[in-house]
Amino acid sequence: MQIPIKRAIEKVPGGMMTVPLLIGALFATFAPTTPKFFGSFTGALFSGGALSILAVFYVCMGASIDFKATPYIVKKGGALMIVKVGTAIILGLIFGRLLGEAPITAGIFAGVSTLAIVAAMNDTNGGLYMALMGQYGRPRDVGAYSIMTLESGPFLTMVTLGVAGLSSFQWPALVGAILPLVAGMILGNLDRELRDFLSKAVPVMIPFFAFALGTGLNLTQVWQAGLLGVGMGVAVVIVTGIPLFLVDRLTGGNGVAGVAAASTAGNAAAVPAIVAAANPAYADAAGPATILIAACVVVTAILTPILTSWVAGIVGRDVEPEAEATTPAASAAVSPAPVAGR
């Protein structure tokens, strides 16, 4: 007898990230002594396992990035990435002055922090973007994500927080945050077979580091992310969606690719823990930020497809000539496979 567990999880928006995260949080809330009781490998997964798994995840993710992107893909992907990260930097500057590193501790905005805002805005859900572009866009717009993949991981969030004038990070921590991704990129471009081998592991890693992250969350705090999480998710779509729409129009698109990029990646929920590990000043903000970002993943996974479909219905589908769509350069550029929860 077969039980469609994977299919059921994938029906949940960002399911491969949010469902294991919730299961881990249930253990942390109702059975907090589990890792100490079992010890060994089980205990290691519960206590600190997320960072090790994430290191492997970013090596495999980097391997999926092809250096041989066409000029259009570099222009489109680079423009969308700059706008996405630039928006996070502006918000980091504003909220960094108001909040500093610590989260708000009381009131309806309890749990909100500069870290949560920046991490939620920085990283696009790549699997969602490529799926939407496959339906409403052009092949080369799908390939633009090969450039946007550089958003992945904590590096740009650390840079953004530094630019915002908050606690600085020592250069080894910054290099260490991006080194696994760069190592993967080098390996994947040196050996195509190694790229295929490593990139297949990316979706497999997501539920494991999500579970490990969840074991550090207490569900008694989750209620605080209710309306706040929804509000932050809506803010991600609106605040990043408008400038992304405009820059997509300016770089030769019809705006649909920009709207499709207005989301939060599932692995963005891992960023607060890594940032806090690199700088203890963010330790208090990391837990609530993880919960809020996980809510953003779900909310944007629902809203972004709806908004993309609506915009595509207004501006029409941007179809390129058949010959251009099937050129070797365009085909090679669309190399990263959609990643669940990204």
TrEMBL record:
Pfam families documented for this protein: KdgT (PF03812)
Organism: Tardiphaga robiniae
Protein name: 2-keto-3-deoxygluconate permease
Cellular component per GO, a single term: membrane
Single GO MF annotation: 2-keto-3-deoxygluconate:proton symporter activity
Presence of keyword Protein transport: no
InterPro entries: 2keto-3dGluconate_permease
Keywords carried by this UniProt record: Cell membrane, Membrane, Sugar transport, Symport, Transmembrane, Transmembrane helix, Transport
Membrane-spanning parts: 12-31, 37-65, 77-96, 102-121, 142-163, 169-190, 197-217, 223-247, 259-279, 285-307
Family: Belongs to the KdgT transporter family.
